[in-house]
Amino acid sequence: MAEILRAEHLNKYFHEPEDFHVLDDVSVSVKEGEFVSLIGKSGSGKSTLLYLLSTLDTDYEGKIIIKDTEVTGKSQNELSKFRNEHIGFVFQFHFLLPEFTVLENVMMPARKLGKYSIGEIENRAMEKLKQMQIDSLAKKPSGKLSGGQQQRVAIARALINDPIIIMADEPTGNLDSINSGIVFDIFKSLAHNNHNTIITVTHDKDFAKGADRIIEIVDGKIV
């Protein structure tokens, strides 16, 4: 598979309450359709690396290239558009709007992108919900769902614009073992059957072991 993301010599510093070198000369490459787990102790820099790779944090030294586009140095508006089109996000907390239906939540990133008609967006959203096996919940307020169901809605929302990369930060952190297994199976299928690239930060050792590759961060360095 072709390389989809490359980061070269990333250095990241925090300056409050005192200077701290969070990421120390980190270089990493990820291929299309690869399922990668980032692991490390709390404070190791793994979540910081994910936020740099996802373009949410732009205060760093080094270079990041995603799908032949150098994203380093782009404006916030350019990065916002790039993320919405090419990167899907799944977090520990699903960040669904509880008063909106499942379908409305999934449609939101596509409505923002403005690439499809409302009818097309609704059809795409239903396809993603079917993929997550929760299309029967489309008209239900998202606040009425279980935690596992809400996380599957969040994954469907992340997929609505057909991103090339899914970035996930502790996606099973609030889930029991059964729902963690469901999320793992979804990610593995997305990588191996849909050729989505999955990059996830996790403390779950079993989850990490099932990925195609584990990248361990220790004191801001890849080991």
Quick take:
This protein has 223 residues and is α/β, with parallel strands linked by helices.
Separate helix tally: 7
CATH topology of the domain at 3-96 and 161-222: Rossmann fold
Find the count of extended strands (DSSP E, 2+ residues). 10
Strand residue content: 25-35%
Largest beta sheet, briefly?
6 strands, mixed
SSE layout and pairing:
Layout: E1 3-14, E2 20-31, E3 35-39, H1 46-53, E4 61-66, E5 69-70, H2 76-86, E6 87-91, H3 102-113, H4 118-131, H5 147-159, E7 165-169, H6 177-194, E8 197-201, H7 205-209, E9 213-218, E10 221-222
Parallel strand pairs: 3-8, 3-9, 6-7, 7-8
Antiparallel strand pairs: 1-2, 1-4, 4-5, 9-10
Helix pairs in contact: 3-4, 3-5, 4-5
Description:
This protein is globular. The chain has helices at 46-53, 76-86, 102-113, 118-131, 147-159, 177-194, 205-209; strands at 3-14, 20-31, 35-39, 61-66, 69-70, 87-91, 165-169, 197-201, 213-218, 221-222. Helix 4 crosses helix 5 (147-159). It has a domain at 3-96 and 161-222: Rossmann fold (3-Layer(aba) Sandwich). The model has no long low-confidence stretch (mean pLDDT 92). The strands form two sheets. It has a six-stranded mixed beta sheet. It contains seven helices and ten strands. With 223 residues, it is of the alpha/beta class.
